[in-house]
Design a protein that fits this description.
- By secondary structure, the protein is an all-alpha fold.
- The chain has 18 helices and no strands.
- The longest helix has 39 residues.
């Protein structure tokens, strides 16, 4: 009976979403596992295999993130103009070539160029794959899909670094070669699958009647989107402390801080894997804005916990609370963007969301200043308060959106 129940649940899950959506979720696991198998070791690889100094290594690695800030909008818009299929496949094949290039080149200039292309490929793939998932999913199920995608990301990230460490011990270039091959196989299989299900008819022809300038003007004039992006930027400033300055703070505060930080990162990934589905079921009862507000509060509590923690238990509990914020904010942010996307411009709007990722550039810089001039307690308490400001921007955006809805209803009644 138990086996039959599990089988029926799996069958129901399989029928709930388009086969391509299921494959993209699986591909997300593979893509993130592959990237996290190699990218965390890139700085070490460059230090050992090139003559680059730490400043140049930082520039090379940071160039990818900077390229991705604008690349998301470019890739998302191109997917609306030229079709999801072309941009998605181009990004995946390009990604495979980039990682093979990391294993083969030695020049600092070539590494810099590869890092820029890596950032562009990632920024193209992310919004386009999300937009394609949304294209193929009923509106009421999209929150669940975004939650599953976030779960898939964390499954990949939780296993990738361990595999990377094993492969790097055999040969320092092996993680990059394997990653490149995985992306090329993923690209080829995606090409075959999209052809099988005729996705080129849905997302292959694009919108030739539109232009890049038109897309930019629509985004630039959308005040609701601007508020959402500002909210995302503030959230990113606070979130980035967990990925950058938290390690320095914990490592300096406790004698075994490096080991503790490694455990905290594992706890972060495991919490998402274990709790994402229950959280999705719970949060599905509420509006995206309510879920996002709750997530930001969890972020704030987590940062305050980091500031006041003094031992392993309190730091780990704070990380769990912080992770609750991740699990709520990620899908809710995507639903808000999806809801305001005009017909034929979903890729553009998902891509525009990458502008808020500039907070991941500002956050470490601001955090480094606070950490060096004051201390970690001041840094994380400040971020706890600043992060709450994102709620103001999101609610302002929602207020404008509702006023537009009311105004349009009034016009419809008059007509």
């Amino acid at each position: 009976m138990a086996n039959s129940k599990w089988y029926n649940q799996l069958l129901l899950f399989a029928k709930s979403y388009h086969p391509v959506v299921h494959y993209l979720l699986l591909g997300t696991i593979l893509a993130r596992a592959a990237a996290s198998m190699s990218m965390p070791f890139l700085a070490i690889y460059l230090a050992k295999n090139t003559e680059m100094d730490p400043v140049m290594i930082g520039l090379v690695i940071g160039a990818g993130s900077l390229a991705g800030t604008a690349g998301g909008f470019i890739g998302g818009t191109l997917s609306d103009l030229l079709g999801r299929r072309r941009i998605l496949l181009g990004a995946l094949f390009g990604w495979g070539a980039v990682f093979l290039g990391f294993a083969l080149v030695k020049s600092a200039v070539l590494f810099l160029l590869l890092s820029l292309v890596n950032g562009l490929c990632r920024s193209f793939y992310e919004p386009v794959s999300q937009a394609l998932m949304a294209d193929l999913t009923e509106k009421e199920k999209r929150f669940n899909v975004f939650s599953l995608r976030y779960l898939a990301i964390n499954i990949g990230v939780s296993v990738g670094p361990l595999l990377g460490a094993v492969f790097a011990a055999l040969d320092s270039t092996l993680p990059f070669i394997i990653t490149g091959c995985i992306y090329l196989v993923y690209a080829l299989s995606t090409y075959l699958l999209l052809n099988k299900y005729g996705i080129n008819k849905i997302a292959g022809n694009g919108n030739p009647g539109s232009t890049f300038r038109h897309a930019w003007n629509v985004v630039r004039r959308d005040s609701v989107l601007r508020y959402y992006l500002l909210g995302g930027l503030v959230t990113a400033v606070g979130y980035s402390q967990m990925t950058v300055t938290l390690s320095q703070y914990v490592g300096g505060k406790l004698a075994d801080g490096v080991a503790l930080f490694a455990v905290m990162m594992s706890v972060n990934a495991v919490t998402v894997v274990v709790m994402q589905i229950p959280f999705t079921k719970w949060s599905g009862r509420y509006s995206p804005l309510t879920v996002l507000t709750a997530g930001i509060f969890f972020y704030s509590l987590g940062n305050a916990g980091f500031a006041l923690s003094s031992g392993w238990i309190t730091f780990i509990v704070s990380m769990i609370v912080f992770t609750f914020g991740e699990m709520l904010c990620y899908p809710a942010e995507n639903v808000l963007i999806d809801r305001i996307s005009p017909d034929g411009m979903r890729g553009t709007y998902y891509g525009a969301k990458s502008f808020s990722q500039f907070g991941h550039f500002l956050g470490p810089w601001i955090g480094g200043i606070l950490l060096s001039h004051y201390n970690g307690t001041v840094l994380f308490l400040t971020m706890s308060v600043v992060g709450l400001g994102a709620i103001v921007f999101y609610r302002l955006g929602e207020a404008v959106r509702l006023s537009v809805v009311v105004k349009n209803k009034g016009i419809d009644h008059q007509m």
